[in-house]
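ARCHIVE CARD
Drawer: 12
Card no.: 0347
Subject: one protein chain, sequence and derived structure
Cross-reference: see card 0346
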Amino acid sequence: MSTTQMTSTINEILVDYLDICQNGFTIIDANDTILYQNKAQAAMFSLEAQDMMIGRHVDALFTWLYIHNRGIHGVLDAPNLEAWLREAHQRTRSTASDMFELTLLDGRTLLVTKQSTAQKGVMFICTDISEQKWLQAELVRLHAEVEQLALIDELTGVANRRHLMQQLRHEVARGQRYRQPLCVAMIDLDHFKRINDHYGHPAGDAVLRHFASTLTEQMRNTDMIGRVGGEEFAIIMADTALDDAIQVLTRISQFIASQRLDHVAEGLGYTFSAGVIEMPHDTDGDESSLLSLADQALYQAKTGGRNRIVPFVPGHSADAGPS
């Protein structure tokens, strides 16, 4: 076998191999002519057999991609065809190896690796990484979901105790540093055990969800609502003075007392008691001590007859009266 025959045989073997390869291959010579495209490459670019571009200038491929896949973005972003071709040529003719992603209109993502050849040509190797990208996105989504579950109370959708305490720690530090007002309220649903005993636990869960939903609707987006356990909730009100906090809680208390959850059980209603404190700036108290003081005011509200808001005052708790 002559050297020419051997070379021809080797080339045929290589072409056969490339045509069964799952990666796409495009080879361009020094004159920007497409010397070869394998079947996988044609499939990735949705090219029919009659559209194969072997023997044509590389602009034919770049133009086809621009026209048919305007969703391609990333390193080859361009406002128009002329800019697209200019940028594509610059990347193609750079002697450095290159790697970038193309995202197509149909949602597929291709990883493109560019290698310069010894004959001053260029070889593009394309790998369909759509599944890997989907898996990555799914992992990110699941991670965010797990993080959300770690921060949110599953029944009510508000912050859980852990998340609330983290935020309270941050707000206490901010309030102390900038001497801004900060109020914290501890809330307990009145006679909640009676609701569970009389109407059943599903009704009790519905009451908890209704209360959390009402707070979410009535409070500001900057306030944080948390369920700290059972029928107990807490609210962090940044940049809020005590009188303003009492006014907001009183309005919500009046609204709650007027509600009847007939869709849950006929005549079902409920009220709540709350203790509220404004963080003093002349102490170095932390978030736990602040919550504890609000809890003391809550205790005064409950022992004073329930359905009332009690502010914490150093030395005693003054009842704000029935709401």
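Annotation on reverse: Residues 152-317 form a domain with the Alpha-Beta Plaits fold (CATH 3.30.70.270). The radius of gyration is 34 Å.
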